[in-house]
Amino acid sequence: MKLNELLQNVEYIEMRGPADQDITSVESDSRKVEEGYAFVACRGLNVDGHKYISSAVKAGAKAVFCEYFPDELKQNVTYIKVANPGRTTGELASAFYGFPSKKMKVVGVTGTNGKTSIATLLYKLFLQLGYKAGLISTISYNINREVTPASHTTPDGIIIQKLMARMVGEGCSYCFMEVSSHAIQQNRIAGIVFAGGVFTNITHDHLDYHKTFAEYIKAKKRFFDNLPSDAFALINIDDKNGRVMVQNSRAEVITYSVRSMAEYRCKVLENHFNGTLLRMDDVELWTRFVGKFNASNLLAVYAVAVRLEQDKETVLKELSRLTPVKGRFENIRSLDGKIAIVDYAHTPDALKNVLNAISEIRTGHEQVITIIGAGGDRDKSKRPEMTKEALKTSDKVILTSDNPRSEEPAEIIRDMEAGIDSDYRNKVVSIENRREAIKTAVMIAKPGDIILIAGKGHENYQEVKGVRHHFDDAEEVKKCFGIENNDGKL
Predict the structure, then answer these.
(1) Same domain, 216 and 301
(2) What are the backbone dihedrals phi and psi of residue 321, each rounded to the nearest 5 degrees, phi first?
(3) Which terminus of the chain is more exposed, N or C, with fewer CB under 10 A?
């Protein structure tokens, strides 16, 4: 593609050099640049791409997009000054790959909790409805039935456009993607034309990055501010910030709720460990999901499908066939009747939701034993809050390790112990080794007791000092239950 063709879709301040360069690809990592590439020099948290302009040119870059020109300008290389290289990256990639988001309907899901479940369930639902669809999520990047493990919740702008171009090439009509606050802040979704957006909720998380809750809200809100006028914005009004998200949005606002009046409503009629009976849009249906928070997720999936002009009756029928996402309230039962629940809950609110779901089902005679940790190099302020939330509805709490990264696990646990009220001291034990924590919970549990293993969900690793070691909560509890050759599901 000619450089001047790409520039038709990018705002720039100044250009030095020929505009008719042949561009063979777009890249923001100088190590991946080859002959004929356009290189975008982005400022990251730890790295400034401007330092690598000369390396990119040496590798064959024919165009360089940057905030300021380097001291030395090479002949036969075009330098383009832009205000925001991060945004420019997505816009360039979108143009280079033929604007793939315009050739299918893309729905973004944002919020603290529920993103993965809603995006993944939408993808599964539309496959069941007979469509070809794509998924960009925390767990994987899917193109129809092809699944690739994910590296980020929302990858960089170039990878997104490559994925979407492949989806279009494979005949996908829809793409469902998680949109993280980091991705919004860093302009990774620039160049994507969204058909709709979903807001799930916003609670305490990522303050290590955003610094304040107000900034975190502001980042999420930007997604809805930028939706086009022909898009829809589906918001959960059970969260007080739902209305805030769409204050300046040009999109059509649609509401959903499991607690109050909204355009889409749902009520939990019966709740069991093997599923929930719901009334959705005045129709009763049995689902394989547990808890009010999952009812809310399913309601969002239903609302999006109806908004995308799918038949209501067919959608409700297919919802009853959907199964939970791996690591999201994943039930495992021992041969003697102990129940383990593996869940990704890693924020105070997510933990509260899962424990509330358990409380709604339990008879009151069984114990609830909760295993929790907190990730290293992440928001430290939520650590004592996680402990406080676990203590409210658990009979015993085991504090343990959860991806300590560069931090010492014992120090993270000490931060979590700050959330222990003196009245609850005898309910808590700290076991640094996560495998031993799971073994201990299984050992002290009696038949009928419920063990919640929270924080990692689908993850199959523990990250320690920059190295990922294989570790899967579901695998570990199955070994303890003696059912490692059985899926153990209810």
Answers:
(1) yes
(2) -90, -15
(3) C
